[in-house]
């Protein structure tokens, strides 16, 4: 039973990571933390509060991708088509909802949302889908490599990532190279059974967090333009925190619940729905929080629950549609 059911602790971690990404976007886009070094202003929170919270939320994206690398992604034509249809449905849905709720509708925008991968509607999903399409090639390449050869490649990618941070530009690491590096790091750790004690993982996470916060506070006084750049995903401290968080949760006593795992299956839709609505939604949510924090928390929770429900409906709808389509011929053709 335990071998067939995924560790529920990891599924709960994936939920927490999506919630953290949601909070990150509220902080960055809603409260305007991204403007901290550009002469802009933040509404409702101090610099110090923003720094502590942002340092806590920032590793979520890379941690989510590390999990995908560690446990692997199963490649199939049906899964690829399913994800593409999910994205188109949510893209259209959030575009229309945003136009109705926030008056952000445009005909040009409607045309672009029909091609969410090509138009980078979600940068994470564009990079994720590229990695998904390359999975057969990546898997064959990994099989042909020795342990040392694989390690050299992973280290080289990490070095490229780290050096790119020295450009001191915003959004460093929010790209295909960044996700590929973390994905392959996860594959290497899984294949060669690289393990970390949960206590050491917790110490590493706390130390990196405190160091990052300290550096950001220091820059806030002497070089404010660097504060937000320190939160780039290619910052080594962010990557180490992401990996440490995974190993800490993995080190906890495993729990197995197929029902809870199924309930949490569409956690990705929390990101798709909220980031699909984008800045106007985050700014509106901040006004609700400022008006009444309890009401704001309620809206936050309802958004998460609603996104999960939408995810379940979309997944089941797409599965039923594809069940009536003969995809096996395409699967066989791809595997010939």
UniProtKB/TrEMBL annotation:
The keyword Heme does not apply. Keywords: Acyltransferase, Membrane, Transferase, Transmembrane, Transmembrane helix. GO terms for molecular function: acyltransferase activity, transferring groups other than amino-acyl groups. The chain crosses the membrane at residues 12-31, 51-73, 85-102, 122-138, 150-166, 201-218, 230-248, 268-285, 297-318. The keyword rRNA processing does not apply. Residues 8-311 form the Acyltransferase domain. It comes from the Bacteria. This is Acyltransferase family protein. The lineage of its organism: Bacteria, Pseudomonadati, Bacteroidota, Bacteroidia, Bacteroidales.
């Amino acid at each position: 039973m335990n071998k067939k059911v995924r560790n529920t602790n990891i599924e709960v971690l994936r939920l927490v990571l999506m919630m953290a990404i949601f909070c990150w976007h509220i902080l960055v886009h809603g409260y305007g933390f991204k403007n901290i070094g550009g002469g802009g202003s933040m509404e409702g929170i101090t610099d110090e509060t923003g720094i502590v919270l942002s340092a806590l939320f920032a590793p979520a994206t890379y941690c989510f991708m590390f999990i995908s690398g560690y446990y692997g992604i199963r490649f199939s034509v049906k899964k690829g088509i399913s994800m593409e249809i999910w994205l188109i449905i949510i893209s259209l849905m959030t575009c229309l909802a945003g136009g109705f709720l926030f008056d952000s509708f445009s005909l040009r925008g409607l045309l672009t949302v029909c091609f969410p991968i090509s138009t980078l509607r979600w940068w994470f999903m564009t990079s994720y889908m590229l990695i998904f399409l390359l999975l057969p090639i990546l898997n064959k390449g990994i099989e042909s490599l020795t342990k040392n050869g694989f390690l050299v490649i992973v280290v080289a990618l990490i070095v490229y990532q780290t050096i790119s941070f020295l450009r001191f530009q915003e959004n460093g690491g929010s790209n295909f190279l960044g996700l590929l590096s973390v994905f392959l790091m996860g594959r290497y750790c899984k294949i060669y059974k690289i393990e970390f004690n949960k206590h050491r993982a917790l110490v590493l996470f706390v130390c990196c967090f405190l160091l990052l916060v300290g550096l950001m506070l220091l820059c806030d006084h002497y070089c404010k333009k660097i504060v937000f750049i320190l939160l780039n995903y290619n910052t080594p401290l962010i990557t180490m925190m992401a990996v440490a968080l995974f190993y800490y949760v993995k080190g906890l006593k495993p729990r197995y619940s197929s029902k809870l795992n199924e309930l949490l299956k569409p956690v990705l839709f929390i990101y798709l729905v909220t980031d699909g609505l984008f800045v106007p939604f985050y700014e509106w949510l901040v006004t609700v929080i400022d008006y009444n924090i309890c009401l704001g928390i309620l809206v936050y929770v309802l958004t998460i629950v609603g996104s999960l429900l939408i995810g379940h409906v979309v997944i089941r709808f797409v599965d039923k549609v594809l069940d009536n389509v003969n995809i096996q011929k395409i699967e066989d053709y791809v595997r010939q």
